[in-house]
Amino acid sequence: MTDRRHQLAANLAQVEERVVSACAAAGRKREEVTLIVVTKTYPASDVRILAELGVRHVAENRDQDAAPKATACTDLSLTWHFVGQLQTNKVRSVVGYADVVQSVDRTRLVTSLSAAAVRAGRELGCLLQVALDAGSGERGERGGVAPDGVEELAAAVAGAPGLRLDGLMTVAPLAGPYAGRPRAAFDQLREISSRLRANHPAANMVSAGMSSDLEDAVAAGATHVRVGTAVLGVRPGLG
Ligand SMILES: *Cc1c(COP(=O)(O)O)cnc(C)c1O
């Protein structure tokens, strides 16, 4: 094994242990939580190693980096999640490789994703990104729809050809009433998810929790955790 492979295997094992413990503490089965490894800023060679180590879900947040990486990895059986703020001029490219877009946060994006999915002859999974710190009618600083905009946006996705409404995603807010309280934030997301499922029972994915707060997310009922740093290492610079 190469050094990098050893390192990724050890990190993955550690994250797996954390997920297992968090599930046990919450009285949940391990199979209820899917690990998504966020590979942003890291090379396709790392994605390949992760796939060999059994990872099945990867996530990216910038199309410029993700598109060539996904192209280099088409032979791997991976599900690709897009988790970054998405501009409509990138939609066509993203729909070319993403299986799930977790950052759907406005109707204009829904229209654009739908058109691209239909043109590509694909069905695209969509999660609505909820900005728990956004006021009514606003969007979050890092993207996301305000909690009171979820129902309307969900209806738009559910009615859009080529799109499938899979559930909700959030990032624990750094500011506002939820700052430093990821558990409370994830509980709130879970609450919003319950309301959503009253009208959209199949939209049962709850994507929450990153390297620093995955235990809180599992305790709050998340079905998917998105882990970058704890598997791949601290990213150089922004990302
Ligand atoms: C980068 C990123 C993650 C992973 O964060 P880590 O702290 O590196 O685990 C999760 N979700 C989103 C939306 C991200 O952009």
UniProtKB/TrEMBL annotation:
What molecular function terms (GO) are annotated for this protein?
pyridoxal phosphate binding
Q: Does the keyword Repressor apply?
A: no
UniProt xrefs under InterPro entries: Ala_racemase_N (IPR001608), PLP-binding_barrel (IPR029066), PyrdxlP_homeostasis (IPR011078)
- Sites bearing N6-(pyridoxal phosphate)lysine, chain numbering: K40
The keyword Transferase appears for this protein: no
Matching HAMAP family: PLP_homeostasis (MF_02087)
Indicate what this protein is called per its UniProt record.
Pyridoxal phosphate homeostasis protein
